[in-house]
């Protein structure tokens, strides 16, 4: 049982990325999925989540309007679409499902 993030990279300000959280060994649709990020020298913070019951979504104020979380149940994956990236979005992004954490994917925004 594990979750695996992917999709990070080095991008310029204003560009977009789509992060993936893929589940192996269990069905992701049955669980609340949260995306967290941790910037250098800062604590890990939850920036978005999607509920298991009705797919209600939540966004931290710092990302609302630029980030979109959604499920693809056929692929057993939750995505985080990130638009209009800013340098302050630079962080390691983690997926959390129940007690499982992925290894993280690095997002670096720099010109």
- The DSSP helix count reads 0
Cα end-to-end separation: 38 Å
* Rg calculated over all Cα atoms: 13 Å
How would you spell out the order of helices and strands? Answer: EEEEEEEEEEE
Number of strands: 11
Sheet with the most strands, sense and barrel status: 7 strands, mixed
Q: How would you sum up this structure, described in words?
A:
- By secondary structure, the protein is mostly beta strands.
- The chain has no helices and eleven strands.
- The protein is globular, with a radius of gyration of 13 Å.
- The relative contact order is 0.33.
- The mean pLDDT is 96.
Provide a compact summary of the structure:
The chain has 111 residues and is mostly beta strands.
Helices, strands, pairings?
Layout: E1 2-6, E2 9-11, E3 17-24, E4 33-38, E5 45-50, E6 57-59, E7 67-72, E8 77-82, E9 91-97, E10 100-101, E11 105-109
Parallel strand pairs: 2-11
Antiparallel strand pairs: 1-3, 3-8, 4-5, 4-9, 5-6, 7-8, 9-10, 9-11
Q: Keywords, please?
A:
7-stranded mixed β-sheet, 4-stranded antiparallel β-sheet, mainly beta, 111 residues, 11 strands, globular
